[in-house]
Design a protein that fits this description.
The chain is of the alpha/beta class and 284 residues long. The protein contains 11 helices and 8 strands. Strand 7, helix 6 and strand 8 form a beta-alpha-beta unit. Bound molecules: nicotinamide-adenine-dinucleotide (NAD). The site of nicotinamide-adenine-dinucleotide has 28 residues, from helix 1, helix 2, helix 4 and strand 6.
Length: 284
């Protein structure tokens, strides 16, 4: 996997592009417009600079990563890619469109088309292409350069060869720990995590406890690195809502139903860290 494409350079796409470039691949990043592209490039650059400043990444590796990256709004630049990882917003219609486009523009017949979706069935995206055996889920965790896990999700039609290549790429050059999940909403981690986050939001909404006390309880009492509300802010309230809706639609279990507070805050643009206001406030 020496020629990598990443579609969408938001929170996740910028992290995926960063680790792929740091691993030595030539990486083409595609965004929907110039403004989003500039924001994505700035996000990636600031993550790389932070990693250098903290001593985690040598300056030489960061410079090489920068040289490996190119940014564009033109999907046809993906034509010679061996793997394309899609990380656009969690919206089925949008992702389906992106996969139909990838199927048209990626010319390598062996190329892997991967999605970082948190909850959309891989098979639905695979069926938007003429090569479902090469479509697979690669579910990274935020922040991508820091968290080591990748869930690999094969659909009913993903070939064993595609699965093996993706396992090898994620655990080799990308240095991730891989776990395997079936093609079910939420996969392994979110099927466990989302009900926990929703319970914390319900607790806040009902006045049972304050946001500070809920988070302090889990950080200090259970040694979690952050509380559930701060974690929801980090993931993004819109993304959390979308994942909860998919889980609820798939399993129809009440503990997956999004509480109204999450929907209203999301509709109000109070999305967490990315909008600087969620359950807590964040400085620019
Ligand atoms: N946030 C998390 O913690 C997390 C964790 C794992 C997986 N995911 C998944 O990763 C994906 C991306 O989430 P995110 O948090 O990075 O969202 P985000 O909103 O930060 O980024 C999405 C990016 O996609 C871009 N985009 C939208 N339409 C596009 C198009 N047609 N072509 C190219 N780019 C386009 C947007 O401009 C934006 O920069 C989602 O599927 C989400 O479920 C998120």
């Amino acid at each position: 996997m020496e020629r990598v494409g990443v579609v969408g350079c938001g929170l996740m796409g910028s992290g995926i592009a960063e680790i792929a470039a740091r691993a030595g691949a030539d990486v083409v990043v595609v965004e929907r417009d110039r403004e989003a592209l500039a924001a994505g490039q700035a996000r990636l650059e600031s993550s790389l600079s932070r990693a250098v400043a903290s001593g985690k990444v040598p300056e030489a590796e960061a410079s090489e990563a920068r040289a490996n990256l190119s940014y564009t709004t033109d999907f046809t630049r993906l034509t010679d890619r061996q793997i394309v990882i899609e990380a656009v917003a969690e919206n089925e219609e949008l992702k389906t469109e992106v996969f139909a486009t990838l199927d048209k523009v990626v010319s390598d017949p062996d190329a892997v088309l991967a999605t970082n979706t948190s909850s959309i069935p891989i098979i639905k995206l695979a069926m938007a292409t003429g090569r479902p055996e090469q479509v697979i889920g690669m579910h990274f965790f935020n922040p991508v350069p820091v968290l080591k896990l990748v869930e690999v999700i094969s659909s009913l039609l993903t070939s064993a060869e595609t699965t093996a290549r993706v396992h090898e790429y994620a655990s080799g050059p990308l240095g991730k720990k891989v776990i395997t999940s079936p093609d079910r909403a939420g996969f392994v981690v979110n099927a466990l995590l989302i009900p926990y986050l929703l319970s914390a939001i319900r607790m806040l909404e009902s006045g049972f406890a304050s946001a500070e006390d809920i988070d302090t309880g889990m950080v200090v009492g259970c040694a979690h690195p952050m509380g559930p509300l701060a974690l929801t802010d980090l993931i993004g309230l819109d993304t959390t809502l979308a994942v909860a809706e998919s889980l609820y639609e798939e399993f129809k279990e009440p503990h997956f139903a999004p509480p109204p507070l999450l929907s209203r805050m999301s509709q109000a643009g109070l999305l967490g860290r990315k909008s600087r206001q969620g359950f807590f406030s964040y400085k620019a």
